[in-house]
Amino acid sequence: MKTAQEFRAGSVMSLQGQPWIVLKAEFNKSGRNASVMKMKLKNLLTGATQEPVFKADDKFDQVILERRQVTYSYFQDPLYVFMDEEYNPVEVEKENLGDVLNFIEDGMTDVCEATFYEGKAISVELPTTIVRTVSYTEPAVRGDTSGKVMKLAKLNNGYELSVAAFVEIGDAIEIDTRTGEFKGRAKN
């Protein structure tokens, strides 16, 4: 058990029987009032957020999450199946993947990180930068070089994003998975 004032951003606490990650924690003591902790929490199972205020000496259980490296294997509706380093299948429900779904495609070799709560995989994170191939984009307009010119491109899994005007069909591009933005042409 830890008191509320011992939790910092990035800690995971048990609240109402569910794991909540602390996104922001702020200690506040004013005048004759008791000291309080203002927090911003995100539920790791549902994705819901809330901003409760606790007394600084309220006690909560700290949750230690297990993390393992996994690679994508296949989709079996409604589960996405990954394999860990010992080739054990790790099933993750579609709604728990969030924005990761935009970049999952058959044959991808990116090493991801799965987070487990009570033995069940609850989320998967991609590496910060991934490389994908452009399956379709319009040709660049000749002479349109003023400013930062962007155009839409479609990846092999159907996801569309804005890329620089010089990108062509078949190019490998780097994507920042935190923002979903084009970073540049991949180096060979």
How would you briefly describe this protein structure?
The protein has strands spanning 2-3, 12-15, 18-28, 36-43, 49-50, 53-55, 59-62, 66-76, 79-84, 89-93, 111-117, 120-125, 129-137, 150-155, 160-164, 172-176, 181-185. With 188 residues, the chain is mainly β.
Distance between the termini: 51 Å
Hey, roughly how much beta strand do the residues contain?
over 45%
Mean pLDDT: 89
Number of strand elements: 17
Q: Mind summarizing the main beta sheet? A: 7 strands, antiparallel
Number of helices: 0
Subcellular location: Cytoplasm
Keywords: Cytoplasm, Elongation factor, Protein biosynthesis
Pfam family, one: EFP_N
Protein name: Elongation factor P
Could you give the topology of this structure?
Elements lengths: L1 E2 L8 E4 L2 E11 L7 E8 L5 E2 L2 E3 L3 E4 L3 E11 L2 E6 L4 E5 L17 E7 L2 E6 L3 E9 L12 E6 L4 E5 L7 E5 L4 E5 L3
Antiparallel strand pairs: 1-7, 2-3, 2-7, 3-4, 4-5, 4-6, 8-9, 8-11, 9-10, 11-12, 13-14, 13-16, 14-15, 16-17
If you had to describe this structure to a student in words, what would you say it looks like?
The chain is mainly beta. It has strands spanning 2-3, 12-15, 18-28, 36-43, 49-50, 53-55, 59-62, 66-76, 79-84, 89-93, 111-117, 120-125, 129-137, 150-155, 160-164, 172-176, 181-185. The strands form three sheets. Strands 1, 2, 3, 4, 5, 6 and 7 form a seven-stranded antiparallel sheet that branches. Strands 10-9-8-11-12 form a five-stranded antiparallel sheet, with no helix packed on it. Strands 15-14-13-16-17 form a five-stranded antiparallel sheet, with no helix packed on it.
